[in-house]
Design brief:
Blueprint lengths: L6 H4 L1 H6 L10 H4 L2 H8 L28 E3 L8 H17 L2 E5 L5 H15 L3 H5 L31 H22 L6 H5 L4 E9 L11 E4 L5 E6 L5 E5 L2 E4 L7 E4 L6 E3 L7 E9 L5 E2 L3 H4 L10 E2 H9 L23
Parallel strand pairs: 1-2
Antiparallel strand pairs: 2-8, 3-10, 4-9, 5-8, 5-10, 6-7, 6-9, 11-12
Helix pairs in contact: 5-8
This protein binds N-oxalylglycine and nickel (II) ion.
The site of nickel (II) ion has 4 residues, from loops.
Keywords: Dioxygenase, Iron, Metal-binding, Oxidoreductase
GO molecular function: dioxygenase activity; metal ion binding
Protein name: Non-hem dioxygenase N-terminal domain
Length: 345
């Protein structure tokens, strides 16, 4: 059946004004072609196909009007020690209070950020058949393309993205700068996190959210946390990212030229869509090498303390994190000692 139209849009008056608006039904099979394909092939789409509608408690309500810290990283350049320490403190507090912050004067060329967003847009503009060559449901595949809510397959082919190599290099340098500042803010050696990551890995998620006729009935990306240590996200100038702060969803307002940084696990976030504009975002996660054992930092536990998390190999953790069963809750709970969920291990 056709999905139930929202009454305001479906009123006969609206139909007279927009005589060529379309209601469509999407099969599971067509779904794999993605929402961009749907929107491109259905001009004047009037309502959200029921396949994409979320149960109403999960639908977005207006976000609260708070904003996350915007931190100027030029303070870390070493020219002024006092300012450097203040910036480290600022990063430390943002991590503690929010786990999310925006950074400016971060050292990544603005032109490269723009080029990267453009390259991702070009990739998504390829015909479905071309993109589908990269489709996979194996979360450990290095290069994957996919679609839909809560899909594990959303990583696009870097092979096609000629700017990605340069971009990831500069983003990696930023990740190390931040890792140094965070280590120091915790009273650890500056290179503690960097050394713990070993060779490390970068995981890139390129997201494309076309305009949606009924943004109140769905989400671009459902609530989840990222599995890396540090996610560094760039977006075009369309807002959509929301983060969970206490019980509230807080909208991140885009500040041109900045990245949104988050600390990975335990920090839920989601993406809302809008009626008018396509939103593109590129999230680069930074984690340890696949075979590294992840455990609480020894110096922070001390002699008398007790670790609260079971050590786990990072690639096993990634599998838990990416599994659709646990995704949306926090996968950290599954390795919490004395926690009562070990469901996905
Ligand atoms: C992600 C993500 C949010 C966004 O890719 O992990 O959370 O703003 N994206 O697109
Ligand atoms: Ni995310």
């Amino acid at each position: 059946s056709l999905c139930a139209p929202v009454s305001a849009i479906a009123s006969s008056a609206t139909k007279v004004i927009f005589p060529d608006r379309k209601y469509v039904q999407v099969s599971q099979n067509e779904r794999t072609k993605g929402v961009k394909h749907l929107v491109d092939s259905t001009p004047n789409l009037v309502s959200l196909p029921s396949l994409y509608a979320l149960p109403s408690p999960n639908c977005p309500k207006p976000a609260t009007n708070t904003s996350i810290p915007v931190i100027d990283l030029s303070g870390l350049d070493g020219s002024d020690d006092q300012r450097r320490l203040l910036t480290i403190k600022e990063i430390g507090s943002a991590c503690e209070e929010w786990g999310f912050f925006q950074v400016k004067n971060h050292g990544v060329r603005i032109s490269l950020m723009e080029e990267m967003v453009k390259a991702v847009e070009e990739f998504f503009n390829l015909p479905f058949e071309e993109k589908n060559k990269y489709a996979s449901n194996d979360v450990m595949d290095p290069v994957r393309y996919g679609t839909g809510l809560n899909t594990p397959a959303k990583h696009t082919p870097l092979l096609l993205l000629h700017v990605a190599r340069k971009y990831l290099e500069e983003v990696y340098a930023l990740a190390l700068t931040l890792a140094g500042a965070i280590s120091e803010s915790l009273g650890l050696n500056k290179d503690y996190i960097e050394i713990s990551l070993g060779q490390g890995c970068q995981i890139v998620a390129n997201n494309y959210y076309p305009p949606c006729p009924e943004p109140d009935r769905t989400l671009g990306i459902t609530p989840h946390s990222d599995h890396g240590g540090l996610t560094i996200l760039v977006q075009n100038d369309v807002d959509g990212l929301q983060i969970k702060h206490g019980e509230d969803w807080v909208a991140v307002r885009h500040v041109p030229g900045t990245f949104v940084v988050n600390l990975g696990d335990y920090l839920e976030h989601r993406g809302v869509v809008n009626k008018e504009k396509t939103r593109i975002s590129i999230a680069v996660g930074h984690g340890p090498e696949q075979t590294a054992t992840v455990a609480p930092a020894a110096p922070l536990i001390g002699d008398k303390g007790r670790a609260q998390f079971t050590p786990i190999m990072y690639k096993d953790y990634m599998k838990i994190q990416q599994s659709s069963v646990v995704r949306g809750k926090t996968p950290l709970e599954s390795i919490l000692i004395n926690g009562d969920t070990m469901s996905a291990v």
